[in-house]
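#onboarding

Welcome to the new folks! Below is a worked example of what a typical request in this channel looks like: someone posts a single protein sequence, and someone else replies with the predicted structure as tokens. Don't worry about understanding the tokens yet, we'll cover that in week two.

Example request:
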Amino acid sequence: MESTRLVAPYVPFKTFLAALETLEHGIPNQLDRSVWPSYSGAIQGQLLGAFRYLGLMDDDYCPTAAVRELTANRDARRPLLRTLIEKRYQRLIALDLNRTSPRQLEEAMREYGLSGATHKKALSFFLQAARYAGIPMSPLLKARTRTAGFGHRRAPATPAPPATPPSAPMTKSIRLRTGGTLTLTASLDLFSLGAEDRAFVFDLIDRLQQYDRVG
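Example response:
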């Protein structure tokens, strides 16, 4: 096994569910990185850690009866996952999530030995998994499952710069010597023109003005 120490899952919960769905088509004799080739190496490692922590595979990468039950029947997946969560997160469940404050849960999660960004991701996994499994929790904790990160205020979005209004069309008319009128209309942004276009446009303007003066 890549690591002998059990670490609380910190893979995105949606990715964990997707990995379970992959196994609905058949569970191999060994669960390793090659089972989920479309994921990055980091995510593969996180999935293996999550499966091991939740008792879905043993130290030899072999799938357990629990993972077979989870993948055999989607309708039973939520109650089965609830049983696993209540078993693997006993210290957190014992707090009574209906009355636990976000800060209290965050501090209790520190007992699992994670820190920094990994700590926040592990909290996010637990909360989303608990809500998915139907474990009762307070509205404050439910609100946390809808945010990008636990205990982290999302920075306000930077307003997009106002769109530059289109330039008003420019029109130049000259009277031809043999009769009739020629009108040139231009709608463009002079500051965005390339060197070749600028040379062409200004040359054309100069020719029109010169013809108009001579006439």
